[in-house]
Each structure stands twice: as C-alpha cells, then as structure tokens.
Queue: 3 jobs
Job 1
Amino acid sequence: MAELPATLAIQLCYARPDRQFLLDLTVAPGTTIQQAIQNSGIIQQAPEIDVSVWRVGIYGKLKTLDTVLREHDRIEIYRPLIADPKDTRRKRAESRGAKKSA
C-alpha cells in the first residue's frame, strides 16, 4: 500500500482589479478547500472575500468548500460578476447596429 505524503503542495489564487494573489501552501492530507482558505491568511489580506457566497474551484472547475484537496491542486476564488455577460454582449450588438444604420 502506498504511503500518504506528510504534506500536500497546493496553490491558492484570487484576483481583484488592483492586485493578484498567488500563494504557495503546504497542507495536511485530508484538508478541504475551506480549511485551506481559512488557514492561508488570504482573508486578512483581502477581507472582501466571502466564501459563504462566492464560488470556488480547482483549475477552473467549480467545487464545493468541503472538497478534499490533492497534491498540486490550485484553489481559485471567484469574485461575483458585476454585469451579466449576456446583457453586456446584447447591448454592444445593439449599439453596433445603431451605428451602422446612422
């Protein structure tokens, strides 16, 4: 039977308009996404983070906070969208159409 590693190397990333965070961390096997975020200190550096509402993922795939981490996982904290992308595209297309007919 394979021996479990003593620690796992992971990354935690979060970006806001003025600053990006990319933290290299080591955690114990069995650590969840929520535990890693809480223990990383990112909340103190970026107090706007609210993982009870915001989504999180690993390498672009949405995950729940109770997901157990594996070696080399990259936790991503996603900010809520300010505007709906569909509405934004629709408004851009309408303004292009208005310009062409003018």
Job 2
Amino acid sequence: MKYIYASLLCLSFISNAHAIALPYEVRIALKQANIPQSSVSIEVREINSRSPLISHNATKAMNPASTMKLLTTYAGLELLGPSYIWKTEAYLDGKLEKGVLQGDLILKGYGDPKFNIEQFWLWLSELRARGLRDIQGDLVLDRSFFNLPKHDPAEFDNDAVRAYNVGPDALLLNFNTVRLRYLPDGNRLRVISEPNLGGMLLDNQLAPQSAPNCENWDDAIRIQPRGDSVVLQGGYPSECGEREQNLNVMPHTRYVAAVFNAIWQELGGTFKGNTREAALTGSAQLFATHYSAPLSEIIRDINKFSNNVMARQLFLTLGTTEQKPTPPSLPLSIQAMKSWLKYKKLNFPELVLENGAGLSRQERISAQHLAQLLQSAANSPLNAEFVASLPILGVDGSVKKRLKGTASASHAHLKTGTLEGVKTIAGYVKSKSKKEWSIVFLINHPNAKAGGAAQDALIEWVQKH
C-alpha cells in the first residue's frame, strides 16, 4: 500500500519511572465526583519528550468515546490527503429532449459526509440549468458504493430518532435529519420542519407544560415516526421560548426521495415516477457531478462538533485505500487502519475498532497510545490541518463553554467524548512556559458525567506548568 505522507519521527517510549503522581487538584475533584482513581486513565507528555510527566493507569484499555475520532481523522489526512473530495453523480437513463426525460434519473453516491440541503438545492438547480425539467421515469438511488450491514438506529441506546444514531450511507443527504423548530405563540405551539419534506405530515399533539428549568426542555417530548407521519406527543415548556432539535425520522431512501420531491417541485420541475433503489445501469449517461468540500474542511466538523455519522463516512472511506475489488466495508476500513498504524510504527495491541466514531461500547484504546498518536500527529506534515480541526478551549466546538474566561482559554485544542458512564478528553495544551503538551484523560465509571471538573483541573494544572 502506498501512503501520501511518511512519519517524520519514530517516537520511542521508555519507562514511566520519572512520571509524577496525579496533581492534588485532580485527586480532590475525582473524590468529590465519587470516581475512584482506578477508573481513570491519564497521560500527560511534553511534545517529543521520551517519557511522560504524568502516567496513571495509562496502559489500561479504555472506552474512548468520541476521542476515537482523533484516530480516524488523523488517518484520513494521511491516507487520503487533505485535498481529498467525495463526489455524487447524476445519470440519465433514457432520452432527454426539450426538457423531458423519457426514462430514469439516477443518483449515485460515494459517501460524501456533508452533502447538505443547500448544496443539494444548488445541484438540482444545476440539473435544471442543464436542461432537465420533467422526469417521466423513476428516481433511482444507487447506494451500492459501501458494503454495509443493515443498520438499526435504536441498537445503541434504544433512541432511534436521535441524530447521533444515524447510520452511514453511500448517498447520505443532510445527515438524514430533520430540524424541528418549536415556536410558542400564546397558548399555541407551532412546529415547523426544515427542510420541507414532500409527503411528510407533522402531527403536533404537544401540550403546554411548566418546567423547573430549561436545561432538559425536550425530556417530555415523544417523537414517533409512523409511515409518512411524525407524531409529536407529550409536553413542551412554553416558557423556554423557541427551541430546535435535529432528528432522524425516516430511512435514507425515503428521506432522499422526500427532499428531492420538495426541492424539484420548488424549482419548477415535475416528476411522474416512483423512487427505488438499484445499481447504475450500463446504458445510463453521466449528466452532472457534485463535489464535496475537501477533507481538511470536513474533519473540522467531525472534531469540533463531534459529528458521528460524518466520522463513520470517513472511516468507511478509508477502506478504499486497501485497493480491493470489493466495495468499502467496515472490515476493509479496520484493515486499512491497522496497516497504516503498522506503517507509522504505532503498535496498539489493545485497540478495538467498530465504527471509528466512538459511538460504541466495544471500541477501546489506552491513554498511553492515544497520547502516542497525538505525539505522532504533532510531527506530521499535516499537523496544522489536524490541530485546526480540534475545538479550541473556551472558544468553539464541544469545549466552547469549558474554562471560558480563565487563563487556560484559547491555550488548548481538545477533543471530548461522552457516553453513559464514559467521559474523555484528549488533545494539546500550550503551557504558560510556552511548552506544548499532549494530554489524555479517560474516565470509565458510572459517575463519569461528574468528572468534568477533574479534567478541567488537569488542563489548568498543565497550562500553568
């Protein structure tokens, strides 16, 4: 296998004999959160240092939650390159004459992680500008580029409508989500959907209710997709004002069809057929191609906002680097990752990969090896692109509100991860002495949610070091 970039430095790690104990502030915060030190794995190391400053349970295999995205995005940069782009193709299978297509319009996807509504609208406008107005045949969706097992969005936590549970797809459109906006209006509550989905009915049965606070304003709302309807039941706290949430309410094929129908009609086009799934036919002719943003931009959304389905799309795309005659699949992607790690001389025997996004109960890595990955990335030719994708402490992304207004704000690029019983953080901190540090803090414990203060204490301690 050929790789675009080679490692500039082979990092060798020696005994942790010189590592110091956990700082007092961290130990106190863990105690207050009722998290035993045995449930915590930490490594702090100055960039390019041969030994860590702090190493606590660092070799223990832990669930990293979304900090696993660091591995996926770094591998993506090096295996695919920062300028890598995905494409989506439109084919005509039939005769186009005077704006009328006597045949099918075929859309073939190649795994674009961020083909949003605005881009789709512009692309369909381009099809209109190229002379397509009326489609007499079917809308055919070719989703065959990825070889995927059937996805159950309820499998992870029995909450199928949550956006983070959307499965990957070769023809992923707008993350397969609908944004519902709740608009209190006196004694009434209006609910509108974005985008407008042709054929989908919003059945709003929500009743006004009071809430002690608005932190969990949506706890009493029950979302139930039923065929072409989405039923909203329960209560909405009107005093919380306007709110919104992104939801996964229909399968990929039906979603693409609904969005296509709505936009195509808006653009003045007509469509007489049905929507179906099928592979591209030999008689079809390429009509137009949409290109994604480059990978260097895509990974910013993946890391700053911890977008799970985008990470899964990227992870699957890594399978293309194995150069096999079969479609990309999870086994191929896992093999590509292992081959790349071997090439980088990064030996992670405890590593367990499932989807590359961290939305998993199976994925595992140690703090020591996650820190080693960060050390390797610090010496990569693509370090600037990698670090720029990480949330800036107290400024943006998933750490926008953490340590805001403190001396540590703006002095760290950190990726977070959160699952039930898991709270993690990993990335880079620039200390007061201008030293650069990699930091990894993994918590696997039923009280992990309360561990943020301990992680913040370590960040502040390192920043002062």
Job 3
Amino acid sequence: MRYEKREGRDPLIVSKRGVGYDIKSNSRMIEVKGVGESWQTYNWQSLYRNEIECLNENPKDFYLYIVKFKDKNSDEVTGFYAIKGKDLKAKFRVEIETYGVRPISRSSLKEFLKDWK
C-alpha cells in the first residue's frame, strides 16, 4: 500500500472479495505474497486458481508483488519485487503444484472424527 501511494496511485484492499488479487490500484490488479524463506531454498511462489485466472484474463493489469522478509519470524523487509503479469507469463513457468482437499461441510467430517484418548 505504501509503495502504491508513493507512486501516486490510489490503492484499495480488495482481498476479501475473491477477485484473484489483493489490491486494486488505479488499473493495477496486485497480488501480494510475503516470503520469509532463504533465497537458497526459495524457488517458487504459490498462486491460487483464481489468481492465475486473473493473470490469464488481465496480463497487462495484473502484478505480483513479492515482499521478502529477513526470515520467517521477522517483520524486517529485505527486498521487494514488482512483476508485471505479462512478464510472469513470458519469463516464468506457471505449473500446477498441488491439489486441495476440502470437506463439503463441517458436518460431513463428523463421520471421520476419532477419539484421541
């Protein structure tokens, strides 16, 4: 938000709307990810399906901002990367890494509940 304001744009947090990005800033659709992992082991960034769909539908307006923290327990920012959607599509591989398993409802889990004692 601070970066967007400093650049003269008017950012608005929209992350709770399920639109595929976290911040709407003028025409920019910005997905923000925080990373506290060492660069020696960090080699990918997970994105959800709706974020990839937004990237594919709006490559000129989509941006991925990666905020690098000193480590997993730190608030100290050591790097900030702003990657345009068209660059994500041209210079990065977008791969399906995992699948999620979600219950249909909480009540559907009841049959699987076991006593821990």
